[in-house]
Design goal:
- The protein is an alpha/beta fold.
- Helix content is 37%, strand content 16%.
- It contains 13 helices and 15 strands.
- Strand 1 and strand 2 form a beta hairpin.
- The longest helix is centred in the C-terminal third of the chain and has 20 residues.
- The relative contact order is 0.16.
- The mean pLDDT is 96.
Length: 427
């Protein structure tokens, strides 16, 4: 392992982050578990950054990939592609967007790039509203709308970005207000901001902020924002890269917690739909999707082998009601973790929905982020056979829990017990 780490460091960028003091090589997985190169078995509570949505080595997906690979792997979008059309039809129907069109990409970053291209072209404006503490990808334009300092390596951007209050309920100038007052204050702030700038192209927002530590506003905030945006024709882009496909349990899409004003104008997706295969995409009303007046293609977006995986994975998710499982098992897991947190003065908050749970760690009595303890908890949990993620704004001190949606009650209890021990031993 030390040899592989040395080779990694000699040929890959210094900024390519690795978890753990002694990084691990994951060699194979099954269900909710993975194994490393030394044969150690882990319960996976992070799923390759929320990409392994259903299960590792899901037979239905591996069979679909194998069979498609035996026919043709790739032809590009210059030719008719039956799996791409079939998956687009299913996603358009599930989106709730009227007369929807779907464009496939290879990642969430590329999906958000495409959404920005569509919105700025449609609106003839390069001004974009984004949320503080947000993350939308690693490309030049996506970094330019990312409101999280830890993931924004440059201030240079082709866009003018204005950041809006509201993505984090328990921090910031409105944190002490009740939910209704919080929404009202954020709406008034948005109105004031719009009074000082030329009309923006769009607001882009994650219903639950992923890299930001699984933070979210009260339900209804984005519906209230939408009423303000509609008055000026400003589009709403919902970044569902992490929240989509039923992960939050209560809804199939994260935006549906704010859906009183109808679906977004544009939805971006990626990660879980491919169960590890590289699929991203954009859903938009036809007049928005069709607003480009030049030719475009995607070499690898919508390639047959990834579309076969997406069809099989989405079919499995719907047929086995994994959204319902995320609601039931996730609800139990959140309550179990809140009981643990009540005994730990360094746990500021346990938050989230379904199987998208954040545990924020702070220095007791200060409210200040505690990234050192977050790293220590990750190490202690790994030693006991549990893999977690981390994230957060200001400083990385939130544990991120997002296992495959097929997680069982017994596995949830096992993971909670390991995390409880990791928290206890790092106090």
């Amino acid at each position: 392992m030390s040899d592989l780490l040395a080779r990694h460091r000699s040929v890959l960028p210094d900024w390519l982050a690795l978890y753990y003091d002694n990084p691990l090589e994951i060699t194979h997985g099954e269900g909710r578990h993975v194994w490393d190169a030394d044969g150690n078995k882990y319960l996976d509570f992070f799923g390759g950054i929320l990409t392994t949505m259903t299960a590792h080595a899901l037979p239905e997906v591996t069979k679909a990939v194998s069979e498609q690979a035996g026919r043709i792997v790739h032809s590009s979008t210059l030719y008719l592609n039956r799996p791409m059309v079939e998956l687009a039809e299913r996603i358009a129907h599930l989106s709730g967007i009227p007369d929807a069109r779907v464009f496939f990409t290879t990642s969430g970053t590329e999906a958000n790039d495409t959404a920005l291209l569509l919105a700025t072209t449609y609106r003839r404006s390069n001004t974009v509203l984004a949320m503080r503490n947000s993350y939308h990808g690693r490309s030049f334009s996506a970094v330019g709308i990312t409101g999280n300092r830890g993931w924004s390596p440059t201030s240079l951007s082709p866009l003018q970005t204005l950041y809006v209050h509201g993505g984090v309920r328990t921090r910031g100038p409105f944190a002490d207000l009740d939910d209704a007052e919080f929404i009202d204050a954020c709406v008034e702030d948005l109105k004031d901001l719009l009074g000082h700038t030329r009309p923006p192209a769009a607001l882009i927002a994650e219903p639950i902020q992923g890299v930001g530590g699984f933070t979210s506003p009260p339900d209804g905030l984005y519906a209230a924002f939408r009423d303000v945006l509609n008055a000026s024709g400003i589009l709403w882009i919902a970044d569902e890269v992490q929240t989509g496909w039923g992960r939050t349990g209560e809804h199939f899409w994260g935006w549906q917690a704010h859906g009183q004003s109808g679906p977004p104008d544009i939805v971006t997706f990626a990660k879980g739909i491919g169960n590890g295969m590289s699929i991203g995409g954009v859903i938009a009303r036809s007049e928005i999707m069709n607003c480009l007046d030049a030719n475009s293609i995607s070499t690898f977006g919508g390639t047959q082998i990834t579309m076969a995986a997406g069809l099989a994975n989405l079919g499995y998710l719907l047929e086995h009601d994994l959204q319902g499982n995320a609601r039931r098992v996730g609800g139990l897991l959140i309550e179990r973790l809140r009981a643990v947190a009540a005994q730990d003065p360094g746990v500021r908050e346990v938050r989230g929905r379904g199987l998208m749970i954040g545990v924020e760690l702070t220095r007791p009595g200060t409210g200040l982020a505690d990234p050192d303890r977050a790293s220590a908890v990750l190490e202690a949990a790994r030693a006991d056979g549990l893999l977690l993620g981390k994230g957060g704004g200001h400083n990385t001190s939130a544990l991120r829990i997002a296992p495959p949606l097929s997680l069982t009650v017994a596995e949830a209890e096992e993971g909670a017990a390991i995390l409880e021990n990791a928290l206890r031993t790092t106090q």
